[in-house]
Amino acid sequence: MELRFKSIPILNPINNETVAGNSGNESQFASTLRKNVNAYFKEKGISQKGNFNLVSQTITMLALYLIPFLLLLILPMAWWVGLLLCGAMGIGIAGVGMCVMHDALHGSYSKKEWLNKLLGGTMYLLGGNVFNWKLQHNVLHHTYTNIEGEDEDIGPRWPLRLSQNAPVRKINHYQYIHAFFFYGLMSITRIVNDFIKLAEYNKTGMTRKYNASPAGEYLKMIGIKIIYLFVFIVLPILITPFAWWQVLIGFVIMHWIAGSILSTVFQLAHVVEGAEQPLPDGSGVINHDWAVHEVRTTSDFARNNPIINWCFGGLNFQIEHHLFPYISHVHYRKIAPIVERTAHEFGINYNLKPSFFNALLSHIRMLKELSTL
């Protein structure tokens, strides 16, 4: 059964083209919101894409990732210094993912497509795969947010239950304690899981649907993964005094820190109190306009914290990001009040957690609730 919304989404998740809705008051919300947000950019006379702030984030996060790696390769050092540098690289991975790669693969970094493609390729520096990410994130997550069976980000994971519509297992009963350990495995397991996911996309026809060759994507993935593992594992073993097992420990620590940051930040916007997890009716229809669905299934947090806004690449503005992924995150702080005000005008709940700590506690409470439902 093909899942669909009561009206057409206002956004094509592949090319970011806006289209008309047809569901009365709810589509009026979408059109009014677009009008209000576009008016802000017209009034300010600024581009919806990135600016100098985004360039500074890009330089900082890439440096935080790559400079410690170069130091590991060229300088003799104690093992514990090496581990600290691996930790810094993990923070850098998360920073590149949130502040650089994310905007670029949504086409919101720049008006120049070649620059979006170039900086989107930083995904390969993180051990991931661009094509997989676009399908899983841009297509499935952004179109079917928080819908069990469609949004893979809340899909079943053996130790974790992130959807109220998934079965409860015994191991889920204490997930509010052990979840954060498993969040740390997200980045490193993606290195292998990319092959499994691409095989699924090839089998279901999604790869061809988005004009890619199943065999070609697989061969490209194999080549890029080999290069990545050679550079970040084999090369340090060959040219540094560290033993192979020390290099592997550092590699795991790097990815665990990156995965912990990325997964936690993401979950604070989607698996918290007030973020709905709807199911389609018997006809496969979600009984809301797509734009309304996005507001109801996402959450903002710590909107007024400049440090979090900068370090998290705007991922604490998930409502704005889901509605306008083609707008760079550097503008979300300014358009968030517009989105909130418009949502209230149409009687739509706008889910905002005032701080990072509030959002974290809400997520922990949600994990505990999901462990027993």
Write the layout of secondary structure elements.
Layout: E1 4-5, H1 25-44, H2 52-74, H3 79-105, H4 113-120, H5 122-125, H6 130-143, H7 175-183, H8 186-204, H9 206-209, H10 214-239, H11 244-270, E2 285-286, H12 290-297, E3 300-301, H13 306-311, H14 318-323, H15 332-345, E4 352-353, H16 356-370
Parallel strand pairs: 1-2, 3-4
Helix pairs in contact: 1-15, 2-3, 2-10, 3-4, 3-11, 7-11, 7-16, 8-10, 10-11, 11-16
In summary, what is this structure?
With 373 residues, this protein is mainly α. It has helices at 25-44, 52-74, 79-105, 113-120, 122-125, 130-143, 175-183, 186-204, 206-209, 214-239, 244-270, 290-297, 306-311, 318-323, 332-345, 356-370, and strands at 4-5, 285-286, 300-301, 352-353. Strands 1-2 form a two-stranded parallel ribbon. Strands 3-4 form a two-stranded parallel sheet.
